[in-house]
Design goal:
The protein is an alpha+beta fold. It has 2 domains: 30 residues, no CATH class; 150 residues, Gcn5-related N-acetyltransferase (GNAT) (Aminopeptidase, 3-Layer(aba) Sandwich). The chain has 4 helices and 11 strands, in the order βββββααβββαβαββ.
């Protein structure tokens, strides 16, 4: 929840209300967003079909930065996001008009699949990825899933440790899609986590 502070006199009288914070200084007006709790964190939410374009944008920006050394193409199109929304769900963390991050989840009986974890590059290492992972696991656990499966690209050397810290372990490998052109030989590493 935010607080509105009206400063309407040179003496600095303050009046509180809720919503955006407005700070009036003389003839100028600035809008400030202020949390009423210093440690308040954004809460992930389920995506709507109208979010498809923003989802594709944050995925492609995040993956382009991380994977441009082995692949030149975008990771996903808006129509592919729309198809995924029909099979599973995306969890999002909003950041104003853009997204701070997103993750795809697809319950598959007692197992679930998690993929496309993406964080806006300007917000990486801020906890958004971990927040999305925890929310995705909780969501799938509530749907009755007992295990979470992921696929990571072998060329992303930083990923195994990221997921191992969160309780995932390697279960094998899988081929990379043959129709995707890469600059280096690439395959997937399969990982899983017990959600029970």
């Amino acid at each position: 929840m935010s607080t509105i502070l009206y400063r309407h006199s040179p003496l600095g009288e303050m009046v509180q209300a809720t919503s955006l914070a407005f700070l009036f200084l003389g003839w100028r007006c600035r809008i400030l967003r202020m949390s009423s709790h210093a440690d308040a964190k954004p809460q992930p939410r389920l995506a709507y079909p109208a979010d498809a374009e923003r989802i594709a944008k944050v995925i492609n920006v995040a993956f382009r930065l991380a994977e441009n050394f082995f692949i030149d193409s975008d990771r996903i199109t808006v129509s592919e996001v729309q198809e995924l929304l029909n099979k599973g769900a995306f969890l999002l963390v909003d950041d104003g008009d853009s997204l701070a991050g997103c993750v795809y989840i697809e319950p598959r009986g007692v197992r679930a699949y998690l993929g496309l974890l993406s964080v806006n590059p300007q917000l990486q290492k801020s906890g958004v990825g971990s927040l999305l992972m925890a929310a995705a696991e909780d969501h799938c656990r509530q749907k009755g899933c007992q295990s979470m499966d992921i696929l990571i690209v072998n060329q992303r050397a930083e990923l195994p440790a990221f997921y191992q810290k969160r309780g995932y372990f390697e279960t094998g490998t899988a081929p990379f899609p043959p129709d995707v052109i890469t600059k280096l030989p690439v395959h997937f590493i399969k990982m899983s986590k017990n959600l029970a």
